[in-house]
Amino acid sequence: MPTVLSHAVAATAIGAAMIPPPRLPVWGLGALCAVLPDLDVIAFALGLPYGHVLGHRGLSHSLPFAAGLALVATAVAARRRLDAGSSALRLWAFFFVATASHGLLDAMTSGGFGIAFFAPFSNARYFFPWRPIVVSPIGIGAFLGHRGLEVMSSELVWIWLPAAAVVFGCWLTRRGRATSRRPL
Ligand SMILES: [Zn+2]
Q: How many domains would you assign to the chain?
């Protein structure tokens, strides 16, 4: 997996593209959705094997799970009135893409098992053919030192910089539109 922080960064960039103008509470909820799938590491403590449908990178990383979590997040956003200006469908689409981005990024990592994108209907595990992101070790201890540095520099290049480019591009586009609407 990329680190928790990098999943949140990716979700924020998706929020900038799908839910403009800046809506930090909604983006924050999307970031939470993008981080939640890795709670499945508890499966190791419960003795479930990695390849189990409820194991790491199993059901919680699937597209059906993303669709379900997006429904819950949309209901939370509506209840807390975070949805100003955005339709329920747009919010659901954002939360779905934010959650699904977790599995998509994991499928681009260099290690671990593949992602069960279609669980619970199939437990087949998938990777993308292109996997440039150095896989992050599970646990803080393993993350310290040279390995952690390698992971962070990889995520900086493949997640943080593209995310920053998306946010900056969205800001430029909105600014351009606002300027062109200004009376001469
Ligand atoms: Zn993961």
A: 1
d(CA 17, ligand 1 centre) in Å: 23
Gap from CA of 108 to ligand 1 centroid (Å):
11
DSSP 85: T
Calpha distance 167→16 (Å, rounded): 6
Q: Which residues pair with 48 in a beta bridge?
A: none
Expressed in angstroms and rounded, the spacing between residue 65 Cα and the centre of ligand 1 is 13
Helix/strand/coil for 142: helix
d(CA 127, CA 105): 10
Q: Ligand 1 centroid vs 35 CA: distance in angstroms? A: 8
What pLDDT digit, counting tens, does each position of 3-29 carry?
A: 899 999 999 999 999 998 878 999 999
Amino acid symbol at 41: V
Model confidence pLDDT, tens digit, residues 99-141: 999 999 999 999 999 999 999 999 999 999 999 999 987 766 6
Query: Is 15 within 8 Å of 94 (Cβ atoms)?
Result: yes
- Which residue intervals of the chain are DSSP H helices? 4-18, 24-35, 42-45, 63-79, 88-106, 140-143, 146-155, 161-181
User: At 142, which amino acid appears?
Assistant: A
Which domain, by its residues, includes 9?
A: 4-181
